[in-house]
Specification:
This protein has 124 residues and is mainly beta. The protein is 0% helix and 52% strand.
Amino acid sequence: QVQLVESGGGLVQAGGSLRLSCAASGRTFGTYAMAWFRQVPGKEREFVAAINWIVGSTNYADSVKGRFTISRDNTKNTIALQMNRLKPEDTAVYYCAAPKGFYSGSSPSSYDYWGQGTQVTVSS
């Protein structure tokens, strides 16, 4: 099992920045990618960004490209999501996710482990 714990959410004004972190623990050996998703009430969970550190790739949803950056700290087994130029439509609960292998795509059903989520609220 892999445990994921998110931190860094909060309230920010439009145009501001926030940095989310996700710490992975447990049986992390064999997990080579992680991702961020977000969800608002009444809507499906939406892909935000993913990173695969074996092939050195990242990918982003079009809605956040150029504003958000996903990164990994190898020594601490954590990933981060730097969110700049935030918009009110970025308001959601943000979840960290990890697959059992290499998957770093946008399908939530392909991820096996999930954190509890952290609230991000962007005021206009």
